Amino acid sequence: MKCEETHAPNSNWVYVMLPSKKRMPLVTQRLRDPDVNPCLSESDASTRCLDENNYDKERCSTYFLRYKNCRRFWNSIVMQRRKNGVKPFMPTAAERDEILRAVGKMPY
């Protein structure tokens, strides 16, 4: 599959040209990467809840809280690794699985 990067006119966005001629901003593409975003499943669950409940935020508050706690947990891990000089600051998906197994349960 051949992809091509292009810059949008008058913009700082980089678009990746997919073979199907669909454009996805590089930022969006990175946020969908499980190695970059540790809370991808929580984000998807909250979006799905909003879609299913006609965007009634009160019905999805538990999903929002879970996402917020997930971000807090992994942000604390990033800060700890940065303080200790461990790179990359965000653990990879495999490292995150090991961390969660060491904790023994979902901390969020």
UniProtKB/TrEMBL annotation:
The record ties this protein, via PROSITE patterns, to: CHCH (PS51808)
Protein keywords: Disulfide bond, Mitochondrion
Membrane-spanning residues where? none
The answer to whether the entry has keyword Mitochondrion is: yes
Cellular localisation: Mitochondrion intermembrane space
Q: In the UniProt record, which is one GO cellular component term?
A: mitochondrial intermembrane space
Keyword Mitochondrion on entry: yes
Query: Which GO biological process annotations does it have?
Result: mitochondrial respiratory chain complex assembly
Question: What family is this protein classified in?
Answer: Belongs to the CHCHD7 family.
Q: Which PANTHER family match?
A: COILED-COIL-HELIX-COILED-COIL-HELIX DOMAIN-CONTAINING PROTEIN 7 (PTHR46811:SF1)
**What protein name does the entry list?**
Coiled-coil-helix-coiled-coil-helix domain-containing protein 7
Say which species the protein is native to. Answer: Nomascus leucogenys (Northern white-cheeked gibbon)
Give the organism's phylogenetic lineage: Eukaryota, Metazoa, Chordata, Craniata, Vertebrata
